[in-house]
């Protein structure tokens, strides 16, 4: 009977106590890292924000596109608030990594290793997104200006299409870099892109047949452009 | 200095040694018209400067229609020219391909270098598609340099009232407001200049920019004005030229001509920021009335282009135009027909804000120039509607009135040139207040 009680209750509880006492120091360390780290991150945010305000960072940023984006988002008080919170976020990621490593278990160690290995891909994907959004904006504006100067009524539509196309391509490349839904994503993009192109071709060929003929005719007939230049000289 | 002359031309220049006058004709596929220009220039040199040693240089941009051959074969009717009792020196002709970015500017660079090597006293350059050039043009462009100590002679033409709207609406009033000198055709294309100025042009490092394409005319004029050379202008009569103008679309014109002027404003800001009293520019030649070709303009098409631009480019304009200017532009975009106008003050503010945005690189400069095209078309339509019933004299008075507004509003340019536009300034002020409050807390 005593053996049964020992087997059913005492030994498991003893084992639990042993396991708990084994992980307790690690848990305490994790909690200390999180609390102290959180406080450091909070202080770093406040100090950074004040420092940036003293350096007139917000005024400088208001002149840039990034500053306008931050203001438009409505999520942050000012660019200095955004920068300080960004720093706090990065610090939190580091604190969590340190805490996981401090837990000193195989699982947390593997998590940290996998995350650290993933960081270069994450940075590359962010850079791709940043560059892609800049290129999308530039190309969309080029298309808009060219279309307006060619006096097309659908200029904004053309610019919007260019922007969406470049941004879609950018997102696909970024997700590909992050190894998220590789094949499914590529197939989905290819289907979507091909679908849009075919739809536009059909729309232009059927609905805009006359317009297409006029447009092509005006560009292939010699003398049309010259006639316009002959009657009006700007320089 | 970097060597860029073709080897064959180098050896020809060594043979020639020295020359008094260099006549330069840039060309590209002008076989149809260049013969007339070469004959007129050669005749002018022989008739008006028989005692001087003259060289005629054709700087060709790899024409495919045999332009250089036409230059070398062009014959001058010497019998009627050599009646004057002077020793006559023959005019030597050189036709050479130029090196560098394709364009008139690169062609001119070769001509400047030839002038420097031959130690020329005076130079003239004329377009190769001119139909109205006469031998007298050579006298009018060169004599002020040789005998009146003038370094730069700009042309003064009689033009149709609708002709040259970029000159009349932007280039002339702006250069005049900036430098105080009334050069009526700063981008005329036919100039006379001293050897000293040609050598000065070669010291500038602009040959990889739009100046090397078609911004050369405004660059020559502004450099001469900005660097304190003596300026004059000669009355040449009417300017008629070949209608063919390959690749000269409006967007490219704006980038190369207006963009070059805006860039030059950055280079010469120390000069134009100082207050300038209007300075008379001596005029040479005898003004006479000539008939000019009639021009037809589709005003409604230009007004439509303006309205479309204002509607679709609002986001672009928001990046650098003040709210007041944008509001005025939008208000006029709702007006159609005969009552459509772009008032002088609005136009001047617009140009000044564009110049400031170009200087501060508020946007890609190509995009900036492209976005000005619809607004320019609107202003042109407004001008055509306004002067439809006016004669040449009244139109000239109207342009003078615009020049006065450019001068009066110069403080507006100065306010925008280095500072933030009002909207951004307001935002920045608000942010600054918040910052101060946060620091105080």
Number of helices of chain A: 9
Low-confidence stretches of chain B: 78-87
Cα end-to-end separation of chain A: 112 Å
If you compute it from the alpha carbons, what radius of gyration of chain B comes out, rounded to the nearest whole angstrom? 24 Å
Proportion of residues in helical segments of chain B: 40-55%
Largest interface: A-B, 34 and 41 residues
Spans of chain A of at least 5 consecutive residues whose pLDDT stays below 50 are: 226-230
Provide a quick synopsis of the model:
The complex is a heterodimer of chains A (235) and B (441). Chain A has 235 residues and is mostly helical.
Structure in words:
With about 240 residues, chain A is mostly helical. In chain A, about 85% of the residues lie in helices and about 0% in strands. Chain A has 9 helices and no strands. Residues about 225-230 of chain A have low confidence and may be disordered. By secondary structure, chain B is α/β, with parallel strands linked by helices. In chain B, about 55% of the residues lie in helices and about 10% in strands. Chain B has an 8-stranded mixed β-sheet, with helices on both faces. In chain B, helix 2 links the parallel strand 1 (about 20-25) and strand 2. In chain B, helix 12 (about 300-310) packs across helix 14 (about 325-335) and helix 12 runs antiparallel to helix 16 (about 365-385). The N and C termini of chain B lie far apart (about 60 Å). Mean pLDDT of chain B is about 85; it is low at about 80-85. The chains are: A mainly alpha (about 240), B alpha/beta (about 450). Chains A and B meet through helix 1, helix 2, helix 5 and helix 9 of A and helix 7, helix 10, helix 12, helix 16 and helix 19 of B.
